[in-house]
Amino acid sequence: MSYEVRLKRLPGNEDVPIPQKMSDLASGFDLYAAAAEPITLQPGERTLVPTGIAIAMPAELEAQIRPRSGLALKHGITCLNSPGTIDADYRGEIKVLLVNLGQSAFTIERKERIAQMVFQVVPSVRLEVVAELDDTVRGAGGFGHTGKQ
Ligand SMILES: O=c1ccn([C@H]2C[C@H](O)[C@@H](COP(=O)(O)OP(=O)(O)OP(=O)(O)O)O2)c(=O)[nH]1
Ligand SMILES: [Mg+2]
């Protein structure tokens, strides 16, 4: 399926690249940091990084904000709320909640690629409250239940 998502650059961010797919079949659009000044994250610290963009997508989509594995592997920088959820009706600036799980301070520069945005189709679901649920073999077993004697 192909969808059109409208993207608005927020004022003062004309220099920040719009999100980009870095290869032909990349699933995510890389997001660029748009903080005016570099942000240094000490180990264990978290911060909300602006991206300088807002979007409007079709009602059946959501966008997920996911970490970049390179930043995670090399520096311990990841998205705290991974995957972040961008609702179809959200018109505010997309922001990325980064946390430093590494052992050294890490500085995020303006226009650095900090995360990726993956679009997904969200099925329309209606919750129906009932008194009883149908039986299954698994039943209520979970949390490591399978394979036990
Ligand atoms: O990583 C994120 C996560 C969320 N958002 C924005 C878009 C999303 O539509 C809105 C709300 O996100 P979420 O539902 O995760 O947060 P909440 O704590 O439930 O806040 P709300 O009560 O506003 O829904 O915040 C971001 O910009 N980046
Ligand atoms: Mg919410």
Automatic annotation (TrEMBL):
Cofactor(s) it depends on: Mg(2+)
Protein name: Deoxyuridine 5'-triphosphate nucleotidohydrolase
InterPro entries given in the database record: dUTPase, dUTPase-like, dUTPase-like_sf, dUTPase_trimeric
UniProt-recorded Gene Ontology molecular function terms: dUTP diphosphatase activity
The protein's annotated pathway: Pyrimidine metabolism; dUMP biosynthesis; dUMP from dCTP (dUTP route): step 2/2
Keywords per UniProt: Hydrolase, Magnesium, Metal-binding, Nucleotide metabolism
Record carries keyword Magnesium: yes
Domain of life: Bacteria
HAMAP family: dUTPase_bact
Family: Belongs to the dUTPase family.
Domain dUTPase-like: start-end pairs: 16-147
Known catalytic reactions: dUTP + H2O = dUMP + diphosphate + H(+)
